[in-house]
Fold this protein.
Amino acid sequence: MGTFGGYQPNAGRKKGGINARTAALRNIADEALAAGITPLEVMLQNMRFYHSEAETILAELLKGLAEHNKTPEQLISAMKELGAFKEKAQRCAVDAAPFLHPHLSAVSVNAKIKVDRSLLIEDGTSVDQAASLYLATINDPEMLLLADASSPIAE
């Protein structure tokens, strides 16, 4: 007679197995990708559309200002429309930016630099020069790389 409950070998959901919903979503994504309609592409198309509309409105607005053939109310409404299109283009650009310009990951550097202060002073430099050189090497480790082997700060 078999036991019920507890650990059973090869029982349960298999690793990497997908359910029906995930499979359906993958199919939809594959179809959209095959058609060339990805979310990023839609965001970029919308951004380009709103930006081009804003440029058209701006050109008409500048033309109207130069020719003085627009009423103040028309100019104000054109400015509002220009602002709305620019704002929509900005929102689309913000949404698309992480896909095009990913953030760099933070990197920490753990470097230990040893500088012998007595060598700096014995080399004939003044105490002030030695102190400023010492502080510069602490603040900028690349100075150690620039120094040659005969330099008093090289080890």
Helices lie at 20-35, 39-67, 72-100, 117-122, 127-139, 142-146.
